[in-house]
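The methods section describes the discrete structure representation at length, but only in general terms. Each protein is reduced to its one-letter sequence and a matching series of backbone shape codes. I believe one specimen quoted in the main text would settle the matter. An entry of this sort, consisting of the sequence and the corresponding backbone structure tokens, reads as follows.
***
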Amino acid sequence: MSERKVLNKYYPPDFDPSKIPKLKLPKDRQYVVRLMAPFNMRCKTCGEYIYKGKKFNARKETVQNELYMGLPIFRFYIKCTRCLAEITFKTDPENTDYAMEHGATRNFQAEKLLEEEEKKIIKDREEEELNNPMKVLENRTRDSKMEMEVLENLQELKELNQRQASVDFEGMLGTYKVLEQREREREKEEDERETQEMLERALVKRLRDSDSDSDQESESCSSRPKKPSIDRPTDILTTDKLTDTQGPSVGTLRKPKVASWERSVGGLGGGGALGSLVVRKKPSIPKQGTPVPPAGPNTQTVLKTVISAATLTTETAKPVTTQNGSSSLSLLGAYSDSNDSNDSE
């Protein structure tokens, strides 16, 4: 099976390329090419306008006996889109353009013709001055004379306009400059005045805020009620004496912070709920014939124990809820036991 894409062809050993017959084609043969119109043109037959960029199926041929610096020149044949008249144009490598040849006229060509005419005049002048120095001098003199005339005519026109004109341009410009300067000064003054007003408003606002704050503080101090100092008989058990630095005889009492359970229960000596729980022992009456013991160290010991128990109760005792729901102190039993022990002694 042969290859799908054949890159090399088989040449037999006895192959002679000179035996292949050559195809004889005329030199002025034509090719069909697709091109666009290189410029705007108008048909001479029907007057139809053909604009630049319109596409045609044209016939192309090489112009015989025409070369530009060894470059061949090509001719193109197109047909009018309306009357089908034949229009021809060819390449112009000298001007890098196309030249209209037959069947239509090129539009918008006046500027191009003027430029070509100016180039032709300059070229003729340069060729004339090349070998004739007197001609160069004459041309320079004529150019300078023409330039002086142009300047004189321009000056005359300016003077004529100034005489006929009733507007003082210099004065108008000066007035405009003065007005512009005044406007700048006015804007600057307005900016400074606005800045000063903003600073004053900010200062007044600060003063008002400080006055309102001081008034609120004074009103709050005056409206705050003073708590009356009530001295209770049991406060001496929960306060400590503090000696003042001014003298040993002057003393002040500092009240410590009272717990919430102490506020509700109270001390031992008070008339609150705790007072009803404390049972005071009635003094025993000695029987007849029983000697009364004198007041000795045992009695003093009992008093000290009572005072220490009372102090300990107020400082460290905590409320205990009983089965009946009433609150009592956890050290009551210890206090009664200590009294019984002292009595037994």
Q: What stands out?
A: Residues 109-184 form one domain. DSSP finds seven helices and twelve strands in the chain. The longest helix spans residues 169-223.
